[in-house]
Every structure is written in C-alpha cells, then in structure tokens.
Amino acid sequence: MTTTTPSDRARGQAGNNPTERAGSRESAPPDAPRGEDPETVLTVEGLDVGAGTTQLLHDVTFSIQRGERVGLIGESGSGKSLTALAVMGLLTEGLAAHGEVRLAGRDASLLGASESRMSRIRGRDMAMIFQEPMTALNPTMKVGRQVAEVMTQHSQADRRSAQRKAVQLLDRVGLPDPAAVARSYPHQLSGGQRQRVVAAIALANDPLLLVCDEPTTALDVTVQALVLDLIVSGVQERDAAMLFITHDLAVVATVCERVLVMYGGRIVEAGPVADVLGNPQHRYTQGLVAASDLERSRTDPGRSPLDTIPGNVPPAGKFPDGCVFRNRCAFATKACEQLPPWTPRGEHPAGEHASGYACFHPVGSDRDE
Amino acid sequence: MLLRLAQRFLVLLASLLAASALVFAFMQVLPGDPARVALGMNSSEESVDQLREQFGLDRSLIVQYADWLRGMVTLDLGVEWVSKAEIAPQLIDRLAVTGWLVITAMALALVVAVPVGTWMAVRHRHLDGVVLSAISQIGVAVPAFLAGIILITYFAKRWQWFPSGGWVPPAEDPLGFLSRLALPAVALALVQASILARYVRSAVLEVLREDYLRTARAKGLRPMQALTRHGLRNAAIPIVTVLGLQLATLLIGAVVVERVFVIPGLGSFLLDSVASRELITVQTIVMVLVAAVLIINFLVDALYLAIDPRLRTGGR
User: A213, A238, A256 — which closes off a domain?
Assistant: First the structure.
C-alpha cells in the first residue's frame, strides 16, 4: 500500500479485497479519494428515500468526522430514523434510496451496494443501537451468544474467544456479574441492562461509525444518564464517529458537538450545538427550542408552561412544496413557496453543510416581531 | 424447567384418568345389553347370561371400570366376545400401523412445509411467493381421501409404480413396507403440508417484522442467515401449536385413508369392532385415540419449554 500513488489508490479503493479492512484507521490514507478530508468517516450526499411515488427524504446531505458526535433532532415523522436506516442499508422492502452514502476508506457509495458487501460492513465498520431494548434482542438466545455472534460473524474471533470477549464487553458496559449475564436470556434482564447489551454488541468490533436511534427514550429516567454515559465513553475510547438521533434537546446538548435539525424529510438547520440550540436561525428550530425551554417557563409565570409549535407534523408525503415548514410557520410568506436555499453560517472544517440553515426568514431578520 | 415438566406430566396423568372415566361412562349409557347385542337378538337367555358371567358384565360398574383400567395398564385386555381373539396384541399391531402412517405423513408434511412456508414468507411480495401461496390454498381444500383416490388412479393403476393398497410390516419386507406406505402417507401429508405451510408463512412473516431480526442484520448477518439463526426458532413457537393439532386430526384422517388403501390400522380396527359390536374393544380403541391426543398435547407443552426460555422461569 505504501507505493501506491494517489491516482492508483483512487482507482484501486473500490476493488480492494473486501475481506480486508479497507484503509484501516491507523493508516488512514492521507490522499483519501475525491479530495475529501481523510478525517471524514461518513458522507451522505443528496440522499433521497421514497416509497413508490411518495418521497420521504429529500436531498439529505451531511458528513461526520472521526471522533465527532452529531445529533439528529426533529419531531416524530420528520425522517430521522429513516435517515439512520438508509445509512445502515436497512430500509424495509419497498423503500428505495438514491444519492450517496460513503464510509471512510470505501470509495463506492454504500447505496446500491450488494447485500453481501453491506453485510461485511454492518456490525464491523458501522453499528447501530436501536430505540427499543425490550425487543431488540432475540428472546430465545443467550445474551453471551448474541454478543459473541457479532465477532464470529466478522471472523474477529473464533467461537471460544468470542465468548470470552463477550463477557469482557459486558463487563465494560457496566453490567454487574457479566459472566452470569452472558448465560442469561434477555427476559431475565431489565430494559437498561438490555440496552447495555445492545451497546456491547454495537461496540464489539470497534466500529468507525455508531448510529444511535433514540437509545434512551424507552428507558427509565434514572438509567438514561447511565446508558448515555457508557455509549459516549465507548465512542470516545474508540475515537468513532457517532450519529445520535433523539428528540430530547437536553440529551443532544450533553452528548453531541454538532446537531442537524430535520423536518419533513429535509435537514433545515445544522451547526455546533451551542449555535443551533442557543441561537437558532430556522423558524422550526426556534419552535423546537422554545417548546423545550423549561427555564423560561419557570421564570415567567405568566406564560403557558411550554410553547408549542402550532399544528401537527403532516403525514408522510403531505408536506407542502417549497419550505416544508411553511404551513405551520408564523413567518411564512409567498417567497416560502420556493425551496429556501442553504445559507452557510460561519466557517466549519467539515464544509458548508456542517453549519447553516434553509430559511427565507431566519430569526433576527427584519420581519421578526 | 424439570419442575414445570413434572407439573405438566401430572396434569397428563389426571386427564388420562378423567378421559378413561368419561369413555367408560359413555359406553355404559349406550342403549341395549352389550351381551345380547354381541350375540344377536335371537340368542337364548341362557347363552346371554353365560356370556355376561364369562366377561364379568354382571359385576358392579366400579369393578368393571377398575378391571378395564388394570387391563389397559398391564396390556391384558382379555379376548373378544365372539371371535375369542386376544385384544391387546391386535391393538398393538394396529396401533403400530397407524403410528407409521401418521408419523411418516407428519414428517413429510414438515419437511415440505417449513422450507416452502418460509420461502412463501420471504418472497411474499414476489410472483413465486404468491403462486406458491395460491397452490397451498388449493392443497388445503383437497380432502385426504380424494387425494388418496387420485394417487391410486395414477401411481397405482395407470403407471403402476406403487401397490394400490395393503400392508406389510417393516421387519418382514422393508421395501414392500415402504412402497405400501408411500401413497397413503403422501395422501395424508398433502393437506397437512398445505395447512402447515400457510401457518409457517404467517409465523415467519411475523418474525420478519421483529426488532431482533433487524438487530441481527445490523450485526452483519445476511437476510437468510438472520432468519435461520434468529427467526426460525421464534417462529417455531406458534408452529408447534399447529403441529399438535394436526397430529390429532391426522389420527382421525387416518381412519378414512386406511379404508381407501385397505390398511389394517387402528381406524379399520375401530370400524370393524363397531360392526361386530365388540364393546370392550371399541371402548379401548377410543381410549387409545384420546390418550394419543392427550400425549401429543403434553409433548407440545414440553416442546414449548424447550423452545422458549421465557416459559421455563415463569417470568412474563
């Protein structure tokens, strides 16, 4: 690999022996394909997802750097989980994805990649933690085997050492008496314990990218922080990239460095957490932040407990043309019937899509109150 | 788990006892004097009394019931009233014949239905899945005796690949045994396989929607790997229920198919005994059929425990 020229690499990357980890992290190519930042782990470009004639995701574009934790927020039905599943290549039958999803070291887009190629990437280079720990594990298989399987599947360990490693992993996600946990079935564990098991499975092969789909939403408040903590420290130890889906802005603020705001299947705003949550530009983000602003509702007794965004999230495919938020937006004008262009905000090393918004009447513009 | 199994076993014993009492009671309620019925209307009072005494019909019902129970446990059921043939050895022979038939049919049905049903589920959005599904729908509607007649017409009469009926014990002539077992077993299996395949299809469809299957895919398992390693065992839970019910219906279905193929099984034994009014024999065959169903249910319960760990500890 040391003698390859940049152009060799660019051509040869896709043809690499697929069983060999292309561009292992230590030797991340300084001359990554397409002139991208070699630190970029995940690139999603112009991702469209549709079911038949109904388009569910529109032109979703973002990237995540190595070691970066990016939040994806928005109301239910805004397309967050769909984005995650499209990245993982786990969309259900009948949903079609177009655009590009690239993972570090792999030149070709993962969209449209063969199932056998995707299955070598899933669980090894990218892993996922799901929302519902109660149903995410096979009820008829011992926990230890379910953890070990992700290692044997990718030939990271033989059966026996995988079992041993599984116990170590269960120990590292803070489960007391990991050997006993490994021998038990999922129904013998609590929700928090099960989510730790799911996290152990996801982190087992030290993935480059960890996708979390509301991993703590179904848990008791008391264990939420513990599970979040172990996920974040697991990601930090491995210097992995993380895409973290949630609708809890407080969680985003503690877990993530950067945040993407999604509505109607589009990313409407993105940027560092402090900018987006502290000084939102898009009117939808403004509504989201106001709706979870406990501080203000406490200090201002005359107000209703929480602001709400008027109206409901329309069903899939029923969002308006132009700005997807305009039918619920108090500031919408005729101009909003056109799709608002992306307005970059400040300089961000990950490119103009890393920070910015798509709104004709951003907060602070002349029409504001 | 052993404790649960022991509990179920006790339940089995209790239901066997209750069932035997019911079967015995039903036979007593039947109108007419069994001894006179057996000997015919024109028999003399003397010979009827003699038969009654000989077979203990003059004793109290409790004693008769206890004697019958003891006979079934010790396999000493005495002789038939008219032919004077020993009941127990005949019963065992006939049971073996029906057992071969039913178990072969069930095994055939399983071997066909599980892969076909799984395929139907995985491909339910594609043409082949839909076509298979339609074929199985037709299969469900064909009764076993009709399938038997059709099989005889083609495979025994027209092409003469198999004998059209009869029976040879496997120890005597293994090849002859297999060739005579083939058509009736297939006739019985056809319907059961169609029914079972449809249940397998819906069970697998159910499992395909489960979160843990998505977890398995996220771990890097290919779709079929995820299904076979994580899905099938979970899908087996509802399938086992159907399997138990099917075995019971197969026993009944065997009565008819044994007629079509002239097989000396339990079914034809029952019909013959009814025709010759052998009360004890009829009573015992009915009891054997009831016991078979109860034992199948027990085995289904045991299988549940083996498949689903959640049932073993009694949690949830």
Answer: A256
Contact (CB<8Å) B223/A115: yes
Domain contains A160:
yes
From the CA of A315, how many Å to the nearest CA of chain B?
22
Residues 195-224 of A with CB under 8 A from B: 198, 201-202
Q: How far apart are CA A237 and CA A233, in angstroms?
A: 6
Domains contained in chain A, number: 2
Query: From A150, which residue of chain B is nearest by alpha-carbon distance?
Result: B219
Same domain flag for A154 and A225: yes
Q: Which residue of A has its CA nearest to B308?
A: A140
Contact A90 B307 (CB under 8 A): no
CB A166 within 8 A of CB A151: yes
A62 and A154 belong to one structural domain: yes
Residues 212-271 of B with CB under 8 A from A: 212, 214-223, 229-230, 233-234
| Distances A304 to A291, A297, A319 between C-alpha atoms, Å | 11, 7, 28
**ipTM exceeds 0.85, yes or no:** no
Work out how many CB contacts closer than 8 A connect A with B: 80
Q: Which two tokens stand for residue B32?
A: 């007419």
The structure tokens listed for B190 are: 């056809």
Of A127, A138, A139, the CB nearest to B218: A127
Q: What is the pLDDT of residues B276-305, one digit of tens each?
A: 888 888 999 999 999 999 999 999 999 998
Q: How far is CA B86 from the centre of its chain?
A: 25
Residues 6+ apart with CB under 8 A from B36: B43, B48
Q: Which residue of A has its CA nearest to B232?
A: A140
Domain boundary among A256, A273, A295: A256
| Residue-wise pLDDT tens digits, A259-310 | 999 999 999 999 999 999 999 999 999 999 888 875 665 566 565 556 778 8
Alpha-carbon distance of A137 to A197, in angstroms, equals 9
A32: helix, coil or strand? coil
- C-alpha distance from B212 to closest chain A C-alpha (Å): 4
A354 occurs within a structural domain: yes
Phi, psi of B168 (to 5 degrees): -130, 130
